[in-house]
C-alpha cells in the first residue's frame, strides 16, 4: 500500500543512515538507525505511522533538501 507521507526510503548500512523522501518533496536523513529498524520499516504496513512512532524523536536527523 502506498504511503500518503513517505514517497520512498533508502538505507546506508555503512553510515547507518536512513534517507526518507517525503511526498512533500522534503528529504531527511535519520542518523545511527540500526539495520533492524530499517528492516522493520520495510515490512511495516504503514510507513508514515512507523516513522512517527519508531524513528522521529528517537534518532537525530538532518534535512538534506527538497527533491529537484
Could you characterize the architecture of this molecule?
- The protein has 68 residues and is of the alpha+beta class.
- It is built from two helices and four strands; from the N terminus they run E-E-E-H-H-E.
- Strand 1 and strand 2 form a beta hairpin.
- The longest helix has 9 residues.
- The protein is globular, with a radius of gyration of 11 Å.
- The N and C termini lie far apart (25 Å).
- The relative contact order is 0.25.
Order of strands, widest sheet: 1-2-3-4
How is the quaternary structure best described? single chain
Tell me the number of helical segments per DSSP (H or I, 4 or more residues long).
2
Number of strands: 4
Q: Structural class of the helix and strand makeup?
A: alpha+beta
What sequence of helices (H) and strands (E) makes up the elements?
EEEHHE
Global Rg:
11 Å
Could you say which overall geometry the principal axes of the C-alpha atoms support? globular
> Approximately how much beta-strand content do the residues carry?
35-45%
Terminal CA distance reads: 25 Å
User: Spans with pLDDT under 50 lasting ≥5 residues?
Assistant: none
What number is the mean pLDDT? 94
Helical residue percent?
A: 25-40%
Question: Main beta sheet, described?
Answer: 4 strands, antiparallel
Feature tags:
68 residues; alpha+beta; four-stranded antiparallel sheet; 4 strands; 26% helix
Topology:
Layout: E1 6-12, E2 17-22, E3 26-31, H1 35-43, H2 47-55, E4 61-66
Antiparallel strand pairs: 1-2, 2-3, 3-4
Amino acid at each position: 500500500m502506498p504511503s500518503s507521507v513517505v514517497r520512498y526510503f533508502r538505507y546506508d548500512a555503512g553510515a547507518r543512515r536512513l534517507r526518507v523522501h517525503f511526498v512533500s518533496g522534503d528529504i531527511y536523513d535519520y542518523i545511527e538507525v540500526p539495520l533492524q529498524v530499517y528492516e522493520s520499516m520495510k515490512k511495516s504496513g504503514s510507513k508514515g505511522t512507523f516513522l512517527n512512532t519508531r524513528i522521529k524523536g528517537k534518532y537525530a536527523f538532518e534535512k538534506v533538501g527538497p527533491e529537484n
